[in-house]
Amino acid sequence: MRKSLQLSVVFAALVPACGGNDQIAVEAVSDDGQEVSAQAVSLIQLRGEQLGLDRNDVVRQRSRLVDELGHEHVRFERLYRGLPVHGGDFIVHTQARDGENFSAMLASSIPVSQRPTLTPSEAQAAAQKSLPSSGEYSMAADSRLAVYALDGDSDLALAYEVVSHGTQADGTPSILHTFIDASSGRPLRAYDEIETGAVTGTGKGIHNGSVQLGTNQNGTKYELIDVAHGSSPTINMANKTSGGSVFSQATNAWGDGTAANLASAGVDAHYGASKTWDYFKNIHGRNGIANDGKGAQSRVHYSSKYNNAYWSDSCFCMTYGDGDGVNLRPLVAIDVAGHEMSHGITSRTAKLVYSAESGGLNEATSDIFGTAVEFYAANGSDPGDYLIGEKIMITGKPFLRNMMDPTADGRSLDHYSKYKSGVDVHYSSGIANNFFYLLSEGGKNKTSAKTVTGISRAKAEKIWYRALTVYMTSSTNFKAARTATLNAAKDLYGATGAEYAAVGNAWTAVGVN
User: Fold this and answer.
1) Catalytic residue among 340, 357, 363, 374
2) What residue segments make up the domains of the chain, in order of their start?
């Protein structure tokens, strides 16, 4: 059961809003008694209009985090004319670059009246009609007015939050919060306070076999929403390119291992997302793609016979096609999932531009971490290897790319001497892919015939992650990547160790000096 946050006011200050006339009230509130962040308050003062803040709002500091880099991230909650704004919480990143100081779903002023059309009893009656048909519930004695903003800017409304206490059909206690539009009586959303933790389901995927899945119970239905991993949802696009809905069904057993069962692809994507999250969390200490604990969407059955998968920052999501059934199977294999999510991490760190040499490094980063996730998952149906996409191939090559010998696909490069301006980033990625393989396992580059002694995949992963997140920039090229990984190796293992030497040797073997 989720406990209510016990807040105590530590500090309060009136902060002039942008424009100089209005005032935004800022209060420091937290469980641990931390004082208000002066830098966060200053940023709200300077740039509060980006969130639509004005004199009608009060913002309260909820928590403050200083990460391993010494950067401060401060979470705030928002009140509008004294009413809680559900979905109005935001984060201030006080040392963020490029003016990206706020993370928020709601970034607008709140043009809602405080005068409801419905009475509290009418709102309770509307909520009563929307309760699950199974189970037993009694209505709370009162209903609380609030601003509903859980859908961001798209559906702002004055609403009643009606709390119903009861028991679900299986005997589980229930504290159901239902939001009712205070003008129309329309149910906006409901959530169960008891169901804030994950439940565990089972699934049979096309590529990964029988696996356990993190799911969510919503009344009598189960959903492919992984509560334990940032509430990451898996969405059935139903062969469309927009819209879609979260997989939902009456039982918590998903898919049957065949492509004909639409949930089978959902199982693979959902599993791949969770394993990628766990890999970055447990190996690199990263809490989700954006390192903010928030999950990303996995969208399957995109379009019709779509032979690709991709990451999009705009929807913060991975998208997977079903393949055409001739060349490719559904593209939901675990190394593909790790690959696509790693594009999201690159976009939140080095932001390697997706063209020329930086684009090849961007693609290689995703291949490197997609491979690392596959090894980490240790799934018997798809054991770890240095091949990319081997599970999705039907005809032609038995893989998309081969890190051991990039030239095996007939297009990828294994040596910088072969690089020419304009080469596709998927093929120039072979240079860094082979670097990573040689650094991990040791071996010989096919073109240069130079031999490298490996230092282990675990150390190579650490070096690449640190290089990406600490030293690489948007325009890093292969030569700069050599410098970045040498710096990372020096930080982690010293400048005189075998690891530092191996990094230099591996780059030399692939022609980057």
Assistant:
1) 340
2) 9-104, 120-196, 199-332, 357-509
Is 426 among the residues known to form the active site? Answer: yes
> What is the distance between the alpha carbons of residues 130 and 340, in angstroms, rounded to a whole number?
38
Amino acid letter at 290? A
* Marked catalytic residue, from 86, 270, 339, 426: 426
Q: CATH fold of 199-332, please?
A: Elastase; domain 1 (3.10.170)
**Closest CA relative to residue 37, chosen from 7, 77, 64, 67:** 64
Is 223 designated active site? no
**Do 335 and 389 contact (CB within 8 A), yes or no?**
yes
CATH of 357-509 among 1.10.390.10, 1.10.630.10, 3.40.50.150, 3.30.70.20:
1.10.390.10
Cα–Cα dist 190/378, whole Å: 38
DSSP summary character for residue 470: I
Q: Is the pTM here over 0.85, yes or no?
A: no
Tens of pLDDT along 417-460?
A: 999 988 999 999 999 999 999 999 999 999 999 999 999 999 99
Strands 72-80 and 57-66: antiparallel
CATH 1.20.1070 is held by the domain 120-196: no
